[in-house]
UniProtKB/TrEMBL annotation:
Highest rank taxon of the organism: Eukaryota
Region (Disordered): 1-64, 642-677
InterPro entries: DUF3433
Keyword flag Transmembrane: yes
Bias-annotated ranges (Low complexity): 50-64, 652-662
Keywords per UniProt: Membrane, Transmembrane, Transmembrane helix
Pfam families in the cross-refs: DUF3433
Keyword Protein transport carried by entry: no
Protein name as catalogued: Uncharacterized protein
Origin species: Moniliophthora roreri (strain MCA 2997) (Cocoa frosty pod rot fungus)
Listed Polar residues bias regions: 7-36
Ranges annotated as spanning the membrane: 85-106, 126-151, 201-223, 535-557
Amino acid sequence: MDHLSPTAASDTTYRRGSTTPSSQNDHLGIPSTPTHVESRRSNPGSAYLSGAGSRTSSTTSFSARDSTHLIPSISDSHAKGFHPLALRLPIAIGTPILMLALGIGLEVAMFISKRDNGFAVPKENAISLVSAQFLLAFVPTVLIIPVAFLWRELDWYVRQYQPYILLSRGGATVEETLTNDYVSIGVLGAIINSLRFKHRIVFWSAFTAAATYTLQPLAGSIFQVQQRAQPSWSTVTSLRSIGLAPDIGELNAFVAAAGFADAAVFNNLEDPPFVKGGWATAEFTFPTDQFLNGTMVVNTTGIQTKANCEGPKETPLVGPNPTAQANRTITSISNGGCNVTVSFDPTVATQQYGVSDASCSDAEKSANITFRPVMFWFFHMKDGGGEEARTVFCKPTITPFNVKAAASLSDGSLINVTESVGNSEYSKPNNVTGAPLNGLAFNGLLFEDNTNPFIQARSIAVKSGVPGAIFRAAAQRAGGLQGTFDEPNAFLDLTNKTYTQHLSLSAKSIYFLSQNDTIPAQMNSLLPRLVLNPIPGHVLALIMFMIGCIGIFLHIIHRRQRKGLFLASPPGTIAATMSITSHSGFGQLLMPYDKEEILRDKLSGLRFRLDRRTGALVADDAPVSFGTMKQNRDEAMMSLLGGHEKSEVGNSSSRAASEAASGYPPWQPHYKTPYDP
C-alpha cells in the first residue's frame, strides 16, 4: 500500500466533482469515496447512501469504515477512567447529607428560638460600617450558597453523564443520547425532556436543582431582630423593713400624703414609687444600667391598707342646730347604727366639706383619736334652692405581707403587687403588728391638739386637705357637682379612691424603718433578640430536608449506574468526543452542515452503545420492519439486503468491519441498488 508524503497530502485538493486521493484513503484504511456529484453520475443509487438530508441505510454505508477492532483493549492500554471530583463518594453523598443536616438544624434552631424568645445579640451593631439589616440577610445567604452551588454542580454532572450511562447499557436511540444535551437546555428543559424520556434520575436531580434557587430568598428572610422582653437575674438592696417610724408625731408624712392626694386629683397623677392602690412596699434600689421598657420583680415586704368605706344607712338629714341658732347640722347613721352629727355655718360658704370622729363603741371611744373611724361629710346648696348633704363612713385597717412586687425600671412606679405564693404571712417581730401599735391603723386625718403651732397647722391642713380633694374630684366629674350629689354612691367611690391613696402614701413613711438587706431580683426588659421567622424558616427547612432525602437515594443509584461506564477523559470536549467516535465509522454518514433534525433523521435507524472492550462509541442497526417504512427507503434497503420484504437486521458496525478486514464473509465487489440494471 502506497503512502502519501506530507507534501503530497497537502497539495491534494478537494474540488466539487473530484475524488478523494486513493493513496491517502489507502493510508487511512478507508476505500476511495466519490463526492456527491460524481457518485450520483456513476451510481444513482448512491444518493441513498450519502448526502445531506438523505435517509441513509446504516447497514452498508459505514460498516466497511468501522475500525474499532484495531483499537487495543482498555486492559492492554492500562488506561484509567475519569472520575470527576464532584461525583466522588464523599461529595456526592456528603452534599445531600449536609443539606439534610441543615434542614434538621434549622428546625431545631426555630424550636429554640420560640422556646427562648430568640437569641441574644449585642445591643449595638458590632460592625458599624454595615447595617444590621444587611447582616441579617447576607450571613444566612452566605451559609446557604455553598451547599446550593455544590448541589447544582452535582446536578450538572448527572445531566451530563446521562447519555453516556445509556450508551454503556447499549441499544440507545439517537434521541436519548447523541442529540440529547441535558446540559445546554438548562434545568427547566432537562425536567421536560426527562419526563418525555422517563429518565427519573435526571428528573429528580433537575427538579431539586431548580428548588435550590428558592433557598437564597428564603435564607435572606428567616432572621430578624425584634425587641422582646427578656429576663435576667441579679441582686438589689432593700432599703426598708416593717417598723413604726419615730417621727410620726411631726405629722410630716400625713401632710405630704394629703398634699399628693390633692395634687393627684387636680393633675390626674398616678401613684408615686413603691405605692400601688392600697399597697405600700419597702423601698429598694434599682440597677444603674439603661433598660428599654424594663421591669424588676423582687420578693419584699408590703403593707396593704384598706379604707373600708361605706355609705350611710339613710340619707343624711340637714337641720338646725339647737345649741346655736345660726348653725346647721348634718345627722347621719352608719350601717352599724352609729349616729354621727356635725355642725357647720351655712353662711360661710354654699359648698362645705369636712371629716369627723365616727366612733360609737366603747372600744373605739377609748382608743386614741388617731385610730378611730371617721365620717366624711359634704354639703352644698342645690341649683334650684335647698340644702343637700352626703356622708361616707370609713374604718381603716392595715395588714403586712410578704409580697412579690414588679416595678418599672424607668420611673420606679409599681406595676403590680401580689402576695407571695405559699409564704404571704409576715411573721417577723415588729412594733407595727406588735406593741405598741398592735396592728391598729392610723386614720391619717384626726390628731390630738398640739401646742406646737406648726404641728397643729399640719393637722388642720390634713383634716381639710383630704376631704377637699374628694370634693374637688366630685366637682370635676362630667355631670358636675350637682350630678355627683344626685348619684347615690358617687361620693362613696371618690372617697374610697382618694382616701386609700392618702393612707397608702402615709403607710410608706410611717410603717417602715431604714434597714438594708440584699434580696434577689429578676429584671425583665426589652432587649434586641435574633428571632427566626417561622414561615420562611419552615419552608426553607422543608426544601433542604426534601433535597437531602432525595439526593441520598439519587446519588446512590447514580453511582451504581456509572459502574459500567468507562470514560478516559472529561466528557463534553471536542477532543473527548472524537476519541470515542473516530473509529466508529458511522460519522461518515454525517456532514458538517447537517442540522440537528437531519442528524437525528440520519441516525434514527441505529442503536448506539459504548464498546466494553475499547470504550469506543459503536452503532448497531435497529431491528427494522420494512413493511412500515417509506417506499423509496424500502426499495434501497431490500435491494441491499437481498430483497426480502420483511426481515429484521441487527448487525454491529464493529463486527462488519472486522469481517471485512478478515475476508469473511467473502468480499462483495459490488452492492446492487435499485438503480442498477
